[in-house]
Amino acid sequence: MKRTILFLIVGFLIFSAYSQKATDSKITFEYVRPPLKPFSKEIKTYSADVILVYEAEIKKKKAEHQRKEQEAEAKYEEDMKQYEIDVKEAEAAYEKDMKAYNDKSFGEKLVDKKILNENQPTKKYVSKPYKQLPSEEKYQKIFDKGVLGSKIKLEGYDKSGHGGKITVSLQGFDMSGPEIRETKGTKVVNGESRQVMYYQASTKYKHPIYVKIEDPSKGVLVDEFVEVCNDYTIDRSKSVDSRSKVSYYETDEYKEKLENKIIDANILLVNEFVNSKCGFSQIERKTMLRSAKGKKYNYDDYEQAFQKAQTAYNMMADNKEEATKQLQEAIGLWENALKESNVTDKKARVNRDVDFATRLNLIEACCFTDKFDKANTHMTKLYSMSPSKKEKKTMDEMKEFMKDAKTRFEANKS
Predict the structure, then answer these.
(1) Nearest C-alpha neighbor of 199 from the set 215, 213, 210, 185
(2) Domain identity same for 293 and 180
(3) pLDDT < 50: residue spans in the chain
């Protein structure tokens, strides 16, 4: 038993002495992302206009309400004229009846009262008309188009009244609810557990937005709904023990709060959408830069490549030309290291783990130097190495980035 344990310990120490492994470092840098739908090269400026599509319907409803109000006013005036006539007629009839009554003798009056059950004449009551004005519905908020338009900022271009044209069309606020959910529960009161009813308000809402982007030379570049703005957002209240405590969620004040909230959020999403399509956006990227280490071998080349790549990424937003040069040198060092790769030998300087990390570095670097065929070759190689679930997740994320970068590169080729 002791020999077995000793053998295992010695084996572990030998393996550790020969084991080479990759190291990961988190890096954050900025770069200028090219557009998916670029303007013509001569375009340097743009304009951004906001249209409230639902405003036309509100104006139509207001006009209809005003028409009904005018009809109600006119009817009231006619009713008042008739009322004055009816009052005069009632007054005249009363005076006539009173005269006739006063002309009767006491005996005749007594007979009228006792036998005929007729009393002194009374004046006919004429009800006074009142204005029956129609109630007006609570309209959606009319947002300031100028303020919203000022929030659309296309990176890489100057805002003016010429050049590219961006039209943002707000379709209207869509709200469903609130739905008040009731559930039974228990509550401790004065040390006693009591059964109570809990209430929770749930409201779905959205404000769809359509975007059209036009180039004077190319024509329409973008003409579509911003997909993310077409999804419902769900707002839920806290669960409370009184129905009255959720009544706020049924008020106009709450509705207006949601109207403002969704527009604030959606304008940011629209700005991101517009810049993804046509802007040269400065994007923050968080990724991993990998190196290698081991006791048996020297990894100075990996350290040198790491430093060059890190320097390149840090200057990517401000000096793409120099950054590309530094990255190409790092690529050369990594590609040279892969020549000695042996993925079946854990003791090799560039074993399976180091090879895997090196290719991830190369894929990222190739994306930033527009070498997408090389990046794809390395990605294919990684998939052939039976990646773990964690490795595959990293690869899938890198694949999405590579696909997007290639699409943008192809769109901007002269």
Answers:
(1) 185
(2) no
(3) 1-18
User: What is the greatest pairwise CA distance in the chain?
Assistant: 146
Structure tokens at 129: 């008309």
Please indicate, yes or no, if residue 135 is contained in any of the structural domains: no
The answer to whether the beta carbons of residues 323 and 315 sit under 8 Å apart is: yes
Residue where a domain terminates, one of 278, 305, 332: 278
- Helix (H) or strand (E) holding 364, with range, is helix 352-368
Q: What is the pLDDT of residue 16?
A: 42
* Residues forming a β-bridge with 224: 211
The CA distance from 56 to 150, in Å, is 22
Pairing of strands 281-293, 45-52: unpaired
Please report how many Cα atoms fall inside a 13 Å half-sphere around the Cα of residue 317, on the Cβ side.
Answer: 12
Q: What is the CA radius of gyration of the chain?
A: 40
Residue 301 and residue 268 share a domain:
no
Q: In terms of Cα–Cα distance, which of 390, 314, 313, 316 is closest to 356?
A: 390
The single residue listed with the structure tokens 């294919």 is 380
The sign one gets for the Cα dihedral 377, 380, 384, 387 is positive
Classify 187 in phi/psi space as left (phi over 0), alpha (psi -120 to 50) or beta. Answer: beta
> Which amino acid, one-letter code, is at 222?
V
93 — phi, psi (to 5°)?
Answer: -65, -40
**CA pair distance 96, 103, nearest whole angstrom:** 11
Q: What's the pLDDT score for residue 116?
A: 55
**Which residue range(s) make up the domain with 213?**
45-58+141-278
How many domains in the chain? 2
Residues 301 and 191 in one domain: no
Q: What is the 8-class DSSP label of residue 161?
A: S
Element spanning 250, H or E: none
Kindly report the CA angle at 316 between 404 and 390, in degrees rounded to 5?
50
DSSP 3-state assignment of 355?
helix
**How many residues does this entry show for the chain?**
414
**345: DSSP letter:** -
Euclidean distance between CA atoms 2 and 312, whole angstroms: 54
Q: Which two tokens stand for residue 112?
A: 């009228």
Residue with tokens 């009813």: 197
CA distance from start to end of the chain: 73
What pLDDT does residue 105 have? 72
Instruction: Decide: 388 and 394 in contact? Cβ < 8 Å.
Output: no
The pLDDT, as a whole number, for residue 90 is: 87
CA 233 to chain centre: 8
Residue 127 is given by DSSP the state P
